[in-house]
Design goal:
Layout: H1 4-13, H2 16-21, E1 27-29, E2 32-35, E3 47-50, E4 55-58, E5 64-65, H3 67-75, H4 79-89, H5 112-129, H6 131-139, H7 144-149, E6 153-155, H8 172-176, E7 180-182, E8 188-190, E9 195-201, E10 207-214, E11 222-224, H9 240-250, E12 253-256, H10 259-267, E13 273-275, H11 283-292, E14 295-300, H12 304-317, E15 326-331, H13 338-345, H14 347-355, E16 358-359, H15 360-370, H16 377-393, H17 397-411, H18 415-422, H19 432-439, H20 445-455, H21 474-485, H22 493-500, H23 506-516, H24 525-553, H25 562-574
Parallel strand pairs: 12-13, 12-14, 14-15
Antiparallel strand pairs: 1-2, 2-3, 3-4, 4-5, 6-9, 7-8, 9-10, 10-11, 15-16
Helix pairs in contact: 1-22, 3-4, 10-13, 13-14, 16-17, 17-18, 20-21, 20-23, 20-24, 24-25
Length: 575
């Protein structure tokens, strides 16, 4: 576990402008910097970076965060990887602290990556010695160059071949990495035997797992590493490390089902393909890919299993869709997979199919229509029921609206009737004057107070102990206050935002981040802060006065204490 104090110190030393400019060209725009957002497709810049506050916010897609968040979202790193990468850039060494008693934590031992690297080297050496494995790869049309690029190797037959990569075959790291299986009787043996080995690499180029394919007939055809401290299959994609640059240059990624599909496509020049790792496409996969590119095409076999995989991928993608980005579906003939198709017909034919893939909207409507009889009232009613959870899950507002219109037309009803049926708020445009009025809602005093604290966290030390208001923001404000008092050093806005990530207040803080990023350093936050405190004190006095006045009017004067009577007279004179 990385100490929170280190995270704060790291953010204090970083310059978010330097971090982001490694990936995105920024232009000065007043007190801030701006660029076209790297997380969604846009023509005019709405991505804003504040050097004063050390965070970024996109007013188009809502992307936001600190330098750590940017490395996670843009480079596809995990939290620990992002912290280590940034710390290395400013000459800091990442410390670790032990988990609290009873706290569960999946933590990789320092030598696990080395164990995986040793295994990779061993498998690659064994490939050179196995004419049978070499002939198999040649028979699949793979060159030595592409085999080396993906680090492909061979696990020979035998039960304990990995004894040669370690001084002690009983070392727990071999089991922790999934390379060795330990039976109930304590006997150990290699997990991978007589298989072509495909190393699974993380975003930093480190081997975290393996996929092993049988050379001849056998079950299972593919055997993957189990979940380990290094490897979580629902968060990783095979070939993504090698494909990151081609994906960015092509602005497209192809998601396939197998290791050989990725390698064969790369062999034929389609080097922007990745594969899931024995699991359905997860929401994390979708988010990760949409950060890299504007177009994702799922290429599945045309059989029943491929159809099920495509539908699951679509369901998991719906909550993460963005207007301006395209998800497509390509179903190859039943007798082909991407590997065999590109070998038989070549790159141009395969890319032609990619560019003519069925868009997500078309795929969704086609599949829904095929499940019902649109010639009957019952069938159209069934269509509305089947479509409802899918349409309501779509996060992209323009696409969601267009698809609701399509479904409404298929069902023979109006879009307004469908929205009423689904409980969707009306999208009828208001007159311009009313729209402008609605766009500038009144801001509560507590919300202004929260913005002041986010702009300058140190002001939390000046908050009174008895701050009260009928507002849900109070909990967030007092959590900031408690945290600030627990810190020995001054806290920056970036550190405060990082602290709130993953908490119940994160969405609230993010909403206010978009507001304060527009405040310049010339903004007199101290005067605003004191003004709000004065207003809150006035509100508290008025509330207390009305409470006492109600008791007086209700003939409850006899139950008032001497202090209450004195307070009432004091408040009355102020009025």
């Amino acid at each position: 576990m990385i100490p929170k104090s280190f995270i704060q110190d790291l953010l204090n030393r970083l310059d978010i402008i330097d971090v982001i400019e490694r990936y995105v060209p920024l232009k000065k725009a007043g007190a801030n910097y701006s660029a076209c957002c790297p997380f969604h497709n846009e023509k005019s810049p709405s991505f804003t970076v504040s050097p004063a506050k050390q965070f970024y916010h996109c007013f188009g897609c809502g992307a936001h965060g600190t330098a750590i968040t940017f490395m996670m979202e843009h480079a596809g790193m995990g939290f620990v990887e992002a912290v280590e990468e940034l710390a290395k850039g400013v000459g800091m060494e990442v410390p670790r602290e032990a988990p609290l008693p009873g706290q569960l934590q999946k933590k990789a031992a320092p030598d696990l990556y080395e164990v995986m690297l040793s295994a990779t080297r061993y498998y690659r050496e064994q490939l050179k010695k196995s004419s049978r494995a070499i002939e198999y790869l040649k028979g699949r049309g793979l060159s030595g160059e592409i085999v080396a690029r993906f680090g492909i190797g061979y696990a020979p037959d035998g039960w304990q071949n990995l004894e040669s990569i370690t001084a002690n075959y009983q070392d727990k790291s071999l089991v922790e990495t999934g390379l060795v299986i330990e039976g109930d009787n304590g006997k150990r043996y290699d997990r991978f035997r007589d298989r072509i080995m495909f190393p699974i690499v993380n975003s930093r180029g480190q081997v975290i797992g393996f996929g092993g394919r049988v050379l001849d007939k056998g079950e299972p055809k593919y055997l993957n590493s189990p979940e380990t401290p290094l490897f979580e299959k629902g968060r990783e994609l095979y070939g993504l490390f090698q494909a990151q640059k081609p994906i960015r240059s092509q602005q497209m990624v192809v998601v396939v089902e197998g290791y050989m599909d990725v390698v064969a496509l790369a062999q034929h020049g389609v080097d922007y393909a990745v594969a899931t790792l024995g699991t359905a496409t997860t929401p994390f996969h979708v988010q990760k890919l949409l950060r890299l590119t504007d177009q994702v095409v799922f290429c599945f076999d045309g059989d029943a299993a491929g159809q099920r995989a495509a539908w699951r991928a679509m369901e998991n993608a719906l909550p993460h869709l963005q207007d301006g980005k395209r998800l497509g579906f390509l179903f190859l003939p039943v007798e082909h997979d991407p590997d065999t198709y590109v070998r038989e017909f070549g790159r141009e034919a395969f890319e032609y199919e990619l560019h003519n893939s069925l868009p997500l909207s078309g795929y969704l409507l086609r599949e829904l229509s095929a499940k019902v009889n649109l010639q009957t009232q019952e069938g159209r009613s069934n269509l509305l029921e089947l479509a409802k959870p899918l349409l309501l899950a779509i996060s992209a507002p323009a696409l969601a609206l267009l698809l609701r219109k399509e479904v409404a037309a298929l069902a023979g009803i109006s879009i307004h009737e469908l929205d009423s049926l689904y409980g969707v708020k009306s999208t009828i445009a208001m007159p311009r004057r009313e729209l402008q009025k609605a766009a500038r809602p009144a801001v509560s005093n507590m919300r202004i107070l929260l913005r002041c604290l986010l702009f300058r966290p140190g002001l939390a030390r000046e908050l009174p102990d008895n701050l009260m208001a009928d507002d849900g923001l109070v909990a967030a404000i007092f959590e900031i206050r408690s945290w600030i008092f627990a810190q020995d050093e001054e806290v920056t806005s970036a550190a405060l935002f990082q602290f709130f990530q993953g908490t119940v207040h994160e969405s609230l803080v993010v909403a206010e981040q978009a507001e304060i990023i527009q405040w310049g350093e010339a903004f007199d936050v101290q005067a605003e802060f004191q003004g709000v405190l004065g207003k809150l004190e006035d509100e508290a006095r008025r509330k207390k006065f009305h409470q006492l006045q109600a008791k007086m009017a209700g003939n409850d004067i006899n139950i008032l204490s001497v202090e209450d009577k004195a307070l009432y007279l004091q408040l009355l004179r102020r009025k």
